[in-house]
Write a structure and sequence with these properties.
By secondary structure, the chain is mainly α. Helices cover 77% and strands 0% of the residues. The protein contains eight helices and no strands. Helix 2 runs antiparallel to helix 6, helix 4 runs parallel beside helix 8 (185-216) and helix 6 runs antiparallel to helix 8. The longest helix is centred in the first third of the chain and has 35 residues, at 2-36. It is globular and about 60 Å long. The termini are far apart.
Amino acid sequence: METDKILGDVGRMSYRVPNSIIGARVVLAFVACPLLVQGSRGAAAAGVVLTVVAIGMDALDGIAARRLGLSSTLGCILDIAADRIVEHVYWITFALVQRVPLWVPLVIVTRSVLVDAVRGLALVQGRTAFGDSTMARSPLTQFLTASRTIRAAYGIAKVTAFVLLGTLVALGAPLAGEAAATAPGAVGVLETTATAAVVAAVALCVARGIPVILDGVAYLDPKRDLSATSA
């Protein structure tokens, strides 16, 4: 009986590990972003470091879940929710400090709301965003949302954008719209690279969201038989 209790306690602790990592990166994002708007280069530099740590932790929760055999629908939902929070917090922060135009977070947030609303409809009918019971109804949707290639490209674009934008804040570089005319040397290169990363991230975000919304039309009718939907 004592052995069973110990094993049960270990099992419960194991389940907390991936979810704790998910929660920790959200907390780090909420700590990092205020540092980026303080107006202090030192604070902004600390915010960039925390940003790198938070982004690095994004992969750890999935690795921990797979290594411990704890992948679950709940974990998938929490991971997506954390991704949304972190992503939105950073885009809004960089719009606030005038490193990206306001339309960027507006597009990102609108896309997220629409996609997650559709995924909510699908979840009620037993379909998840990814995995064996994926809601994706076409090969294109599965490729854009679940393939390692596209997910890696999207992740790299966001990482590059957030880190470089934060670095520009820490360097006290000219604001968006002023950089092209006034930024010298290395700062100009950083600004150009950051802008390219922002454009790539927004483009991939929209490109990955549209097929999900189109596929989601089928889930508006709860009486429709979707059992034959390819996984």
